[in-house]
């Protein structure tokens, strides 16, 4: 019932199985659209766009030289949150993927289920599964800190 609205269009397009079926629903989300809209409406004054127009900037030039640099911290946060959401997703990969190409979360579930659970192996696998999240946090951390500092400074 829950997976139907996503599964039917993917099956009709021919990409209902495999990694594309896991990646496609995470590309655009309502949260991402709302988050970026709210951020840009607060961080981008219309005077800045008007000044760019007066200086002779095209629409693409405004986007590339004005909007994109201002949106970079929010895009970094959104990218990090989207990656974390996709990485921790369990139900959707369980529905569309086969056991041979399962995601990390589905694999961890398979490891920790059964009659006898080896907790040391399960905890070691969980620790290894958190490494990509830490790497993403370190990569996007600089952009996030710059966004915080940009909002904290007056001038």
**How large, in whole angstroms, is the Cα Rg?**
21 Å
Would you report the number of β strands? 0
Query: Helix- and strand-based class?
Result: mainly alpha
Q: Helices and strands, in N-to-C order?
A: HHHHHHHHH
Largest sheet: none
The number of distinct helices, counting runs of at least 4 residues, comes to: 9
Beta-strand content: under 5%
Measured between the Cα atoms of the first and last residue, the distance is 52 Å
Mean of residue pLDDT values: 83
Helix fraction by DSSP (H/I, runs of at least 4): over 70%
Uncertain stretches: none
Shape: elongated
Give a nutshell description of this structure.
The protein is mostly helical and 155 residues long. Helix content is 77%, strand content 0%.
Describe what this molecule looks like in 3D.
The chain has 155 residues and is an all-alpha fold. Helix content is 77%, strand content 0%. It has helices at 4-13, 19-27, 30-43, 46-54, 59-88, 91-96, 104-111, 119-129, 131-152. Helix 3 (30-43) crosses helix 5, helix 5 (59-88) packs across helix 9 (131-152) and helix 7 runs antiparallel to helix 8. The mean pLDDT is 83.
What topology does this entry show?
Blueprint: H1 4-13, H2 19-27, H3 30-43, H4 46-54, H5 59-88, H6 91-96, H7 104-111, H8 119-129, H9 131-152
Helix pairs in contact: 3-5, 4-5, 5-9, 7-8
């Amino acid at each position: 019932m829950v997976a139907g609205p996503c599964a039917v269009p993917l099956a009709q397009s021919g990409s209902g199985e495999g990694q594309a079926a896991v990646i496609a629903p995470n590309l655009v989300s309502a949260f991402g659209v709302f988050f970026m809209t709210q951020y840009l409406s607060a961080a981008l004054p219309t005077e800045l766009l008007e000044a760019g127009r007066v200086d002779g900037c095209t629409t693409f030039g405004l986007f590339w030289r004005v909007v994109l640099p201002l949106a970079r911290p929010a895009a970094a946060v959104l990218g990090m949150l989207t990656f974390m959401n996709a990485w921790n997703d369990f139900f959707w990969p369980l529905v569309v993927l086969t056991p041979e190409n399962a995601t990390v979360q589905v694999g961890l579930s398979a490891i920790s289920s059964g009659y006898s659970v080896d907790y040391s192996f399960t905890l070691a696998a969980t620790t290894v599964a958190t490494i990509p999240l830490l790497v993403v946090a370190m990569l996007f951390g600089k952009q996030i800190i710059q966004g915080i500092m940009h909002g904290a400074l007056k001038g």
